[in-house]
Structure formats: structure tokens, C-alpha cells
Specification:
Distance between the termini of chain B: 46 Å
Order of helices and strands of chain A: HHHHEHEHEHEEHEEHEEEEHEEEHH
Shape of chain B: globular
Strand order of the largest sheet of chain A: 3-2-1-4-10-6-11
Order of helices and strands of chain B: HHEHHEHHEHEEHEHEHEHEHEHHHH
Number of helices of chain B: 16
Number of helices of chain A: 12
Subcellular location (chain A): Golgi apparatus membrane
Structural class of chain B: alpha/beta
Structural class of chain A: alpha/beta
Largest sheet of chain B: 5 strands, parallel
Number of strands of chain A: 14
Keywords (chain A): Cell wall biogenesis/degradation, Glycoprotein, Glycosyltransferase, Golgi apparatus, Membrane, Signal-anchor, Transferase, Transmembrane, Transmembrane helix
Distance between the termini of chain A: 83 Å
Main location (chain A): Golgi
Enzyme class (chain A): transferase
Helix content of chain A: 25-40%
Largest interface: A-B, 63 and 65 residues
Strand content of chain B: 5-15%
Shape of chain A: extended
Pfam family, one (chain A): Glyco_transf_43
Oligomer: heterodimer
């Protein structure tokens, strides 16, 4: 009966995935076929029934009693199943079957030798698990060193051949969003796999604020001050930034820094591929810059009137023809925003870029050096520009012939960085170096919501950052009061207080 | 093959020599690689092995292809065209290649080798797995046909004939190892040369003089999943596949002789091992981002993972005792892959992390060799140096036939009635 059931299960499994194992269909050369096989069959049946009754594979206990001597060496044992002659009860069980993650036990050494004298046995084997199957930290470190060596080799083979220093020029000034923006640029520069020199030009002079942020980079930095304060109109700001960048270029010239100059404005976002791509520049190159314009104030419908073209790509960069030669420039089409762009910092309208932003250009620093024999003749010398800084809108003004610019990033098809200007209001304040010390000025007593375990009349000092209108009468909207509560709650359950809200009337 | 020279020296000396040799090789091949067009300096497998891979079999042998009725080949393929895509498709593509190859001759008198195109691995279940139960009868029937219609079989009793039997255990025609061992190689093929994927030393189903080929892997599909070379290899060990064959061997221990289960149990928590049973769509891309790819045995010791690892430049870690790898006489697998005994699986991480980085880099350079990759593939149409040509090279190396090949008149060696009774039924 058992046999036919087994055979049925075998056949049914055949239909699904036809490799039905049949450990009972023994093979190979065994002695004493019939009585031995029937004996093992009966033993197998008995053990199965016993397991059913007991609810677990009791044969492990049998093993423990009978064969514990032979399995003394737990760490390296040989599991051999022998030929298919040995049937189920003496088969080794996997650790999966029992929830016990103990090492498997070995079968006794009475293996039947299979045909042809192979060292490899057919049949059921033990699953070898070492006593502590967890990673060894030293080996993990060795593996990481191997990976690092392999990747270094890959970079040497497939990456950039002649590696040059990246000289990043960043104009900045102290303001609320400065830390946000400049941390982004700093982290991007720290990730660059090449040497980096960071020139930070600060409007209004060198401050501790900026110095503290820049010092964390670990890069070689030139932190210089510029003797003007940042104006509040975007137009004037762009002009001042240009002057600051030229100031930085003069530093490159003075120090004779060797590398590739790129303009990393502090609010821009750079992809890592940009730094790989600019390594291939010869003298001056241009990349495509994605322009991110905050479009909250733009009225979409008016721009669609009488215009069948699709809205233009928000990209500035080189334009190429089919043979990958530079034929022109994509600039930002600001006609859509005509009259509706931000003039002052506080305006809600979108901030527009110039025709071509500095960020989209990279220069070989040797172009700026004073005396260099093989400097090309289409570059104007920086000394010549003295006093006329304000007219320099983009590095193209430094060239006498703009056709020498090399388009990078698959001839401008790949956008490798994004331009964005997001600033807080001019009157916004922020704690110095973003450390709250001493405690903040504004403390608002929270009269409306007594804590459950505090007496109702005691005013509680709350550190709240915004002006709450405590005295005006609100309707008890659970939503607003809950948000207020979650902002100020320390150890109290919001739900408990929420329940109270419905019964609570405003104070 | 090269280890012979180092057997007498001390280990230190061996490493020094090896390192020097590596340096020289690196410089030499770095120079030579510039004109390759590919920027990676690859290492040519030097010595007799490397030359053999690039041999051209044309002119060294002649193959006669028997014209069998289409019920042996075309009709079977028409019934189930899935046979062209599974890992046993080598038998079909070999036939097509030989039909249009320059080594083919229409004159059987001048042929060195005779090929019988019978597709024994094309009887598929709905799931796509081949059933081998009718294969012995099919083979018998084909041999009976060629022995009665042409005199060349009886002349040698098949010793100058070759057959492609890419099934799990070759000409034993069964998917289950014990049954396959019990059956043994089909009696009638005792003297023929077998071209098969299965290879394990001292095993009944591997005959002396067989040619081991890689399983079929679709070349176009793999080509279309290539990623840029400079993508850094950040996975240390990679494997995707079953560890426990729950349908047929739920406890484990039977499937893969417990080796795959041991890999899972030991390394499932190890962050260096990216192993799972998932079927990701980025399987090929992931292999190209890995340094080592595990190629453990399954129900049979061979697997298409070896081919995939070679194509994608991932060092194969072969966990199969006594396995015979494809074209083992032409490809120095010891230099290219890492061999781990099944009993050493719990120490796999120790073994892999203790390989010196120079050795790993050398293996990667050998793998990057295009002739290596080409030798593992069955492209359509055939290209020089591919697996078809390696098979022909293997056959050419067995020439000239010895004197034992040709039988004296009246001599009979094969027993046509041997084997299980079921095999004798006509097909």
C-alpha cells in the first residue's frame, strides 16, 4: 500500500517536473536484493508512521544515540549516501527539515561502492554546514580589497587615460540656503575620483560661516573674499558672480594651477558623469546644462495661444549638426516668461538664467596662464580685461573665435548638470552655523492644550518656531489642532489628546 | 599543462616566477592589444592550448553527413520548435553547420568521419524538458537504417562515426543519475565518438575519447545584454538558481549532492554572496558586474552558467567533483576558473578571498580573450573559432584512425540485442 502510494506520488511528480526521484528503486550492485530491500522498506514505513505520530523526524534522535561517536568531528565530515541501496531512515537529514541549525550527521561508513569505481557517490549526501555560518570580518575586508583592486584595474583599462585635476570655482555668500547648496556641491566634489582644487570666492569677505562648511570637505581649497556685498536684484547678482569667477580665474593664473577649470555654482546639481566627461577637454569645452526654473508663477495657457510648437527644452548648451560639429548654441528661451521673471530676490516669479551660463563651460587652466608657449591665440589674456569685468557674461567673451569650443557629452546630447536658483527671502534669519545656541528667542506659551498630567492653568514653555495665533478663536478642527500638537508633543500619545480635542472647546 | 614545470620548485619560487611572467606577459600583451581594437589587454592562452583554440579544421578532415528521412530530424523539429532555444540545441545547430561547412564531403569514400543527424533530445514536455525515454529506440532505429543502407557502419561498427548527444547524461539517455548509470551508454554506440555536454571522470556515461561541448546558450540574447566595460565589478560572488529542488527532492541532499544546499545554508547571510532563487531580468547584466560566478552542479554536473560566466567575464567557480569541462584538451580551465571540491563548500569564502589579486586579474584577462568566448558559443552563421570548429578540431585531432577501427571481414563486436528490452522495440 505504501509502495503504491509512493509510486503514485512519483508518477504525479513526473507529470509536473518529470525528474521524480525514487530512492527506493535501487540501482547498482548490491548483495542480497529481496530480503534486504523488503526489510528496509518495512523499516522505512515504520519510521514514517512513527514520525507522523510524534510530529517530528525522530530518526535524528536515533542517529544521536547510535552514531554520535562517528560524527565527533563536526566541522569537516564526509557525508556519503552510498548507492541508492540505503533507504530513508538512514538518510541524512538536512538542517532545513528540523528547525535546529545544528550540523548534520554522517551516515555510517558502510557505503556500497558504485559502478566503475568513481570517487563520487550517487545518492543522498549530507548538507555540510559549518558551525558558525556567518561572515568572517577579515575575509570581508579581503574581499573588499580584491574588489577595489579589480575596479582600479577596470578604471585603468576603460576609464580616462590622462587624469587631470578638477579645479572647481564656486562663488558664494552667507545666506540661509548657503549651507544647503554648498553642502551639495561639496559632496559632489568629494566623490570625484580625481584630484580636486576648490576655489570658493565669497562675496562680502571671508566669514567663519563659510569657512566652517568648506573645511569639512577635505579637499585642497582656496577660500578668498571679494570686497562687494551681494546685491538683492538678480541681474546685479549675476554680474557680481561673473566678477567673482574672474577673480578666481586670476588666482588660477597666479598660482599656475594645472587642470580643468569648471564652474560649480553652489546651487547647481552635478552628475558624476560630468567629471568623467570633462577630462576629455582639450582647451575649452561646453556641456549641456538643464535649466530648472521654478514655474509656480507661470501661466501655462497664455503661452499656448497661437503657438503650435512644443514648449522648448529647458537646456542650454552646444548645438551640433549631424557630423558632430559645433554649429551654434541652444539657449534658454525666456520669451515665455517675458515680464514675469523675478527681479529681486524676494520675488515669487521664476528666476531666469542668462543666455549662456558659466556653469556649462570648462576650460583648460593653461589657457589662463601668463606665459605659455603653445597657448592658442584665440584666447584673450586676463590682464587685458581689467576693469571691463562687468561685460563678461560667459566664458565665450574671453574668446576671439567661438568656433573652437569643443562640445562635450555626446555633442551636447547628454545633460550632465542642472542650473537652479532657489533662495530664501532677504530678511530670513538662520542660526549661525546652524547650531541652536543659545536657545531660540521665541517661546510661546501654549494655553490651548493642557497636557494630560499637568495642571490645566500652568503655562508651559514651548519651543515653537512660528507665530501661532493663540488668541484668535479657531473652530476645533481636529486636523489643525492635531498638527499643532504633534509638533509640540514630547512624550504624549497623540491619540489620547486627539480624543480630548473633540470634547475640548477653545480656550 | 603548465604546472608541470613548477612541480619541483618551492612555492615561493613559483610565485616569483609567476609574477615575473605575469609582468612580462602584461607588458607584451598590453603592447599587442593596441591593434586589437578592443582596449582591454587580453592574455592569449599561451602554449599548445592557445594555438589549438585558433586552429582551422578546414582541410584537416572530411565529414560525410548521412541523409536520414526527415522523421529523425526535420519532422521532430517541426513538431516542437522550442528545441532551437533550449540548452540542448547544439545537436540541431551542429547538423545545420555541417550541411554547409567546407569540411563536408558528398563522397563517403573519402570521408574520415560520418555524422548521423538524429535529434534525440527534442521530445519535450509541456514545460520544455526533454524526455529521453524514446531516445534509445530512436538511435537504434537510425543506426539500423544507416547500417543497412550504407556499408560504412558495418565496416567499422561505428568507430569512425560520431553522434551529438547533448542530453543530461549523454548517451545513457536518462535524466536520473542512478538510472543512467544502470543503463550505461547505449550498446550500439560503444565504438562511436560521442559529442556530449556531460563530462565526469570515471563515470559510466563518459566514454574514452568523447568530446565535451558546452551547452547551447543563445549568442544574440547574450550580446544584446552587454553593458559598458567600465561599469565597475562590485558584486563579489553571484549566483541565481535553485538550491533545493523542492518538487523532486524537498529535503535536499539528493539534488546537487547537497552542494547547492550547502552553499545556501552557509552563505545566505553573507553580504559578499549575492545568491538567491530569483529570476531577475537583469541576470546577464548582473553577471557582468560580478567578480566570481558560482557554477555548481545540479542534477547533472554541467550547466549553461559556465558559458554565461565566460562570455560575461565573470570568473567561474566550479563546484562539481571530477567534472570534465568542455574542450578540456584545448582550454586550460585550471587557469581560468576556480575549482572547489564539494566538501570544501563551507570554506568557500575563505578560499575565494585568499586568492591573490594578481591571480584574479590574470584570470580576468584570460577570460577577456575573444577566442575564449568564441569557443563557447554556437553562433548562426558559424564563425571561425566557435564551438562548431572546436568540435571539428577535436575530431581532427583523433585522426588518423588507428588500425583497430576497421574490422576484419566477418568480425563482429557489437551486440545488437543487448540493453533493456524496451529499447529493442522499433521506433
Amino acid at each position: 500500500m505504501k509502495l503504491s502510494a509512493l509510486q503514485q506520488s512519483y508518477l504525479s511528480r513526473r507529470s509536473n517536473s518529470f525528474r521524480g526521484p525514487s530512492p527506493l528503486d535501487s540501482s547498482s550492485d548490491s548483495t542480497g536484493k529481496s530480503p534486504a530491500t523488503t526489510f528496509w522498506l518495512l523499516l522505512h514505513a515504520a519510521c514514517c508512521l512513527a514520525s507522523l505520530v510524534l510530529g517530528f523526524r525522530f530518526s535524528r534522535l536515533v542517529f544521536l544515540f547510535f552514531f554520535s561517536a562517528s560524527s565527533a568531528n563536526l566541522s569537516a565530515f564526509r557525508g556519503g549516501g552510498g548507492g541508492g541501496e540505503i533507504s530513508a531512515p538512514l538518510l541524512v537529514h538536512s538542517s532545513l527539515a528540523v528547525n535546529n541549525p545544528i550540523v548534520n550527521l554522517a551516515t555510517p561508513a558502510n557505503r556500497t561502492s558504485p559502478a566503475a569505481g568513481s570517487r563520487v557517490m550517487v545518492g543522498r549526501h549530507g548538507i555540510r554546514v559549518r558551525p558558525w555560518p556567518h561572515p568572517n570580518p577579515e575575509e570581508v575586508m579581503k574581499a573588499h580589497r580584491i574588489l577595489e583592486r579589480v575596479q582600479r584595474e577596470q578604471r585603468a583599462l576603460f576609464g580616462v587615460k590622462k587624469v587631470r585635476t578638477v579645479i572647481a570655482v564656486t562663488p558664494t555668500h552667507v545666506r540661509t540656503f548657503q549651507k544647503l547648496h554648498i553642502s551639495g556641491v561639496m559632496h559632489s566634489l568629494m566623490l570625484v575620483p580625481y584630484d580636486v582644487v576648490w576655489i570658493v570666492v565669497e562675496a562680502g569677505g571671508v566669514t567663519n560661516e563659510t569657512a566652517s562648511i568648506v573645511a569639512k570637505s577635505g579637499l585642497r581649497t582656496f577660500h578668498v573674499g571679494f570686497h562687494h556685498r551681494m546685491p538683492i536684484s538678480w541681474d546685479a547678482r549675476h554680474k557680481l558672480e561673473s566678477r567673482m569667477r574672474l577673480h578666481a580665474l586670476r588666482i588660477v593664473r597666479k598660482e599656475r594651477l594645472d587642470g580643468i577649470v569648471m564652474f560649480a555654482d553652489d546651487s547647481n546639481m552635478h552628475s558624476m558623469e560630468l567629471f568623467d566627461e570633462i577630462q576629455s577637454v582639450k582647451w575649452i569645452g561646453a556641456v549641456s546644462v538643464g535649466i530648472l526654473v521654478h514655474s509656480a508663477g507661470v501661466d501655462e495657457s497664455s503661452s499656448l495661444q497661437g503657438e503650435e510648437e512644443a514648449p522648448p527644452m529647458p537646456v542650454q548648451g552646444p548645438a551640433c549638426n549631424a557630423t558632430n560639429n559645433l554649429i551654434g548654441w541652444h539657449t534658454f528661451n525666456s520669451l515665455r516668461y517675458a515680464g514675469r521673471s523675478a527681479v529681486y530676490i524676494d520675488d515669487l516669479e521664476p528666476v531666469l538664467p542668462r543666455k549662456l551660463e558659466w556653469a556649462g563651460f570648462v576650460l583648460n587652466s593653461r589657457l589662463l596662464w601668463k606665459d605659455l608657449d603653445d597657448k592658442p591665440d584665440w584666447i584673450k589674456d586676463l590682464e587685458v580685461l581689467d576693469g571691463a569685468d562687468e561685460d563678461i557674461e560667459s566664458p565665450l567673451s574671453l574668446l576671439m573665435d567661438t568656433s573652437v569650443v569643443e562640445p562635450l557629452g555626446s555633442c551636447g546630447r547628454r545633460v550632465l548638470l542642472w542650473w537652479l536658483r532657489v533662495e530664501a527671502r532677504t530678511d530670513s534669519k538662520f542660526p549661525a552655523q546652524w547650531i541652536i545656541d543659545p536657545p531660540l528667542d521665541i517661546t510661546v506659551p501654549s494655553k490651548r492644550t493642557p497636557w494630560p498630567d499637568a495642571p490645566p492653568q500652568l503655562p508651559i514653555n514651548e519651543k515653537v518656531l512660528f507665530d501661532t495665533q493663540q488668541t484668535t478663536k479657531h473652530s476645533t478642527k481636529t486636523r489643525t489642532s492635531r498638527t499643532r500638537r504633534t509638533r509640540s508633543k514630547r512624550k504624549h500619545d497623540a491619540k489620547v489628546i486627539g480624543v480630548q480635542v473633540s470634547t475640548h472647546s477653545e480656550v | 599543462m603548465q604546472n608541470r614545470f613548477f612541480s619541483g620548485e618551492t612555492k615561493m619560487g613559483m610565485w616569483k616566477l609567476g609574477f615575473l611572467g605575469l609582468l612580462c606577459a602584461h607588458f607584451l600583451f598590453a603592447i599587442g592589444a593596441v591593434e586589437l581594437g578592443r582596449s582591454q589587454p587580453t592574455e592569449r592562452i599561451s602554449g599548445s592550448a592557445g594555438d589549438v583554440l585558433e586552429d582551422d579544421p578546414v582541410g584537416r578532415l572530411k565529414v560525410f553527413v548521412y541523409e536520414l528521412p526527415s522523421k529523425y530530424n526535420k519532422k521532430i523539429l517541426q513538431k516542437d520548435p522550442r528545441c532551437l532555444n533550449h540548452m540542448f540545441a547544439a545537436e540541431i545547430f551542429m547538423h545545420r553547420f555541417l550541411l554547409s561547412s567546407p569540411v563536408r564531403t558528398l563522397n563517403p569514400e573519402e570521408a574520415d568521419w560520418f555524422y548521423t543527424p538524429v535529434y534525440t533530445t527534442c521530445d519535450l514536455t509541456p514545460n520544455g524538458l526533454p524526455l529521453p525515454f524514446k531516445s534509445p529506440r530512436m538511435m537504434r532505429s537510425a543506426i539500423q537504417l544507416i547500417s543497412s543502407n550504407w556499408p560504412y557502419w558495418n565496416r567499422t561498427e561505428g568507430a569512425d562515426h560520431f553522434f551529438v548527444v547533448p542530453h543530461d547524461f549523454g548517451a545513457c539517455f536518462h535524466y536520473q543519475e542512478e538510472k543512467a548509470i544502470e543503463r550505461g551508454i547505449l550498446q550500439l554506440l560503444q565504438r562511436a565518438t560521442l559529442v556530449q555536454t556531460f563530462g565526469q571522470r570515471n563515470h559510466v556515461c563518459l566514454k574514452e575519447g568523447s568530446i565535451t561541448i558546452p551547452p547551447y546558450a543563445p549568442p544574440q540574447k547574450m550580446q544584446s545584454h552587454l553593458i559598458p566595460d567600465k561599469t565597475p565589478r562590485s558584486i563579489f560572488v553571484y549566483f541565481r538558481g535553485l538550491f533545493y529542488d523542492v518538487g523532486n527532492d524537498p529535503e535536499g541532499g539528493y539534488y546537487a549532492r547537497g552542494a547547492r544546499a550547502a552553499v545556501w545554508e552557509n552563505f545566505k547571510d553573507n553580504p559578499l554572496f549575492d545568491i538567491s532563487t530569483e529570476h531577475p531580468t537583469t541576470y546577464y547584466e548582473d553577471m557582468q558586474r560580478a567578480v566570481f560566478c558560482l557554477c555548481p552542479l545540479g542534477w547533472a554536473p554541467w550547466s549553461p552558467r559556465l558559458v554565461e560566466a565566460v562570455i560575461f567575464g565573470c570568473i567561474p567557480v566550479i563546484i562539481a567533483d571530477d567534472i570534465v569541462l568542455p574542450f578540456a584538451d584545448a582550454i586550460p580551465w585550471e587557469d581560468i576558473g576556480v575549482f572547489v571540491d564539494e566538501e570544501d563548500v563551507p570554506k568557500l569564502d575563505t578560499i575565494l578571498t585568499s586568492i591573490p589579486p594578481e591571480v584574479i586579474l590574470r584570470k580576468q584577462r584570460l577570460l577577456a580573450n575573444p577566442s575564449m568566448k568564441q569557443a563557447m558559443l554556437f553562433p548562426q552563421p558559424a564563425q571561425p573559432g566557435d564551438a562548431f570548429h572546436q568540435v571539428l578540431n577535436g575530431l581532427a585531432r583523433k585522426l588518423p584512425h588507428g588500425s583497430a577501427v576497421f574490422l576484419k571481414p566477418g568480425e563482429k563486436i557489437l551486440n545488437w540485442t543487448a540493453g533493456p528490452v524496451g529499447d529493442l522495440k522499433p521506433w
